[in-house]
Amino acid sequence: MGESTMVSVPAAILNAVNDALAPLGAEVRHLPATPERVLDAIAEARADDRGSER
To answer: Quick one: CA torsion of 29, 26, 49, 37, rounded to 10 degrees?
Structure first.
């Protein structure tokens, strides 16, 4: 009975991570949201931003 609420926890965590990354234009698209994936998303957003400035 209590396990049904556990399904939404990873999605809620990913949403919180993406909310924090939104000002940077970064988004983590896959779980688990590891530090490496967060840093990769930030680096990708920065690279995209630099490419659009040209």
So the answer is: -60
How does pLDDT run along the chain (54 residues), one tens digit per residue? 566 667 788 999 999 999 999 999 999 999 999 999 999 999 999 999 888 765
The Cα–Cα gap between 38 and 23 comes to 14
pTM here is 0.78
For 37, residues 6+ apart whose C-beta sits below 8 A from its C-beta are: 28, 30
Q: How far apart are the C-alpha atoms of 8 and 53, rounded to whole Å?
A: 38
Tell me which amino acid residue 54 is.
Answer: R
